[in-house]
Design goal:
This protein is an alpha+beta fold. The protein contains 6 helices and 13 strands. The strands form 2 sheets. Strands 2, 4, 5, 8, 9, 10 and 12 form a 7-stranded antiparallel sheet that branches. Strands 1-13-3-11-7-6 form a 6-stranded antiparallel sheet. The longest helix is centred in the middle third of the chain and has 13 residues. The model has no long low-confidence stretch (mean pLDDT 96).
């Protein structure tokens, strides 16, 4: 280890600067969304079985509720533009704009070259949790997803019900793609209900028992036509392990609600980025 320079303390004491000030971002019209939600009707639902995944389509202007049922359970969510799988959720940019965990009023952004809001968090029954003494919080966009490749790297075993594999199977089943084709579209997730953070001493990603309980939910407003694919993680509430059949696991419920006609008068779905894509040439 290198010796500390004489001005080490001064270097550490430099004040941080927020990388992406968000004051100029367009703000979602939450009062309008809530008013539309009050008169919305259930039009579709799917139960995501434990250690499995399922897909559901959410038209623009509709609402997607993801709810805990039966017991504490976390989920891994992929979002796609329904008509173009190339446009998908960008967890890294969402994290850079809104922070390591998202809640009411935050938005889920799509990847380049689209970079537009895919969904807005309208309601979160766990927003009371905040940031705990360990630095943990709920609904993270910092983790990836449990996957069979890392499981094999760490244990030497093949486990086929990691969230990555669950999402791959569900996407393939919904779209008719082969497993290889579908896997190429699976991406870093919103870790729904998962309580996570980074340790202060080693900077390692940690998980702890989720505070989620049956009937807790996160609800999204679909800014564009969406395909949502959700995995009920094999880690259960992620209090102990994942990538195995050890943890107690429970289903998750996805429901789509349609607003009344004209309930969103004046709302316009966001357009893709206006950047010229000339990249200096």
């Amino acid at each position: 280890m290198m010796n500390e320079p004489k001005d080490a303390d001064a270097r550490r004491a430099v004040e941080p600067v927020i990388c992406y000030p968000v004051e100029t971002l367009p703000s979602p019209d939450l009062p309008l969304y809530h008013e539309a939600r009050a008169g919305a009707e259930l039009v579709d639902e799917v139960l995501v079985l434990r250690r499995e995944a399922a897909a559901i389509e959410v038209p623009a202007g509709h609402f997607l509720r993801m709810q805990s049922v039966d017991g504490p359970q976390v989920g891994d969510l992929n979002l796609f533009a329904a008509a173009d799988l190339a446009e998908r959720f960008y967890s890294g940019k969402t994290r850079a704009l809104h922070g390591t965990h998202i809640t009411t009023g935050d938005r889920m952004w799509s990847c380049f070259p689209y970079l537009r809001p895919m969904a807005t968090v309208l309601a979160d029954t766990l927003n009371w949790y905040g940031i705990d003494a360990s630095g943990g919080s709920v609904h993270d966009v910092i983790g990836t997803r449990c996957d069979p490749y890392t499981a094999r790297l760490l244990s030497g075993d093949d486990y086929h019900h990691c969230c990555h594999s669950n999402l791959t199977r569900a996407l393939a089943d919904h779209t008719g793609l082969s497993l290889n084709e579908a896997e190429a579209h699976v991406h870093d997730v919103l870790n729904l209900f998962m309580c996570t953070g980074f340790t202060r001493d080693t900077g390692q990603y940690f998980m702890k028992a989720s505070p989620v309980r049956p009937d807790d939910y996160l609800e999204l407003f679909a800014e564009i036509d969406l395909l949502a694919v959700l995995s009920a993680c094999p880690g259960g509430d992620c209090s102990t392990v994942h990538s195995s059949d050890t943890a107690a696991c429970y289903p998750l419920l996805m429901q789509v609600y349609a607003p009344a006609v004209d309930a969103l008068e004046g709302w316009v779905r966001p357009q893709v980025s206006a950047y010229s894509r000339t990249h200096g040439r």
